[in-house]
Predict the 3D structure of the following.
Amino acid sequence: MCIPPSVRRLSLVLLISLSLGSIGLAQPDVHALAAKVDQRYDHMHTLEAQFTETYSGAGMSRTESGTLLLKKPGRMRWDYEQPRPKLFLADGQTAWFYVPGERQARRTPVKQLDDLRSPLRYLLGKTRLEKELEGLSFAPDQKPAVAGDVVLRGIPKGMQERVAQTLLEIAPDGLIVRIVVEELDGSLTEFRFLQAKQNVEIPDARFHFVPPPGVEVVSGTEFME
């Protein structure tokens, strides 16, 4: 039986429309994914994880690792263990940076902090991912480190003059397992989080820093080294 050209064209249009509709329905919603991440962290009081931090830029590169502790509201502690010990800590009000053996410790009010690690403290606060990352969207051009994860991009609130984009790799359960920060100067900093333990007991004292005797306290807004 011969099918008229007009019918064939109509059938083709309908097929394309149905295909596009199926693609649209299958495509995840960034707002729903952000809400899933928020819900995941809303149910956490504490988080402990191993981290690896990699930096490349200005003709150099370095890799560091250690243990990260987070506790509501907005407290965090980064204990760097390799290649040398150092501490970055925020108690909710004040942030500290100290390298054991040095004669100075740096501190700054958290609200004035200009540090690439600072957005992570909001995960255990009362805010929302879409409020903390402006222009939050999917990053289909970025391959996740683990198959099945999804990558989002945005810019941390208040860091537009320093950061070009931030990538968040989200696991299927809503956990953030990797953060990549690209600065305007082209440098890249990547954080990876492994062996995450949720709602473990972490004493408040772990987020309290007292400078050792003889150590001078100086002010500063940027703690990256």
About this structure: The chain has one domain: 29-219. The two ends are 76 Å apart (CA to CA). Residues 29-219 form a domain with the outer membrane lipoprotein receptor (LolB), chain A fold (CATH 2.50.20.10). The helical segments are 5-26, 30-42, 129-132.
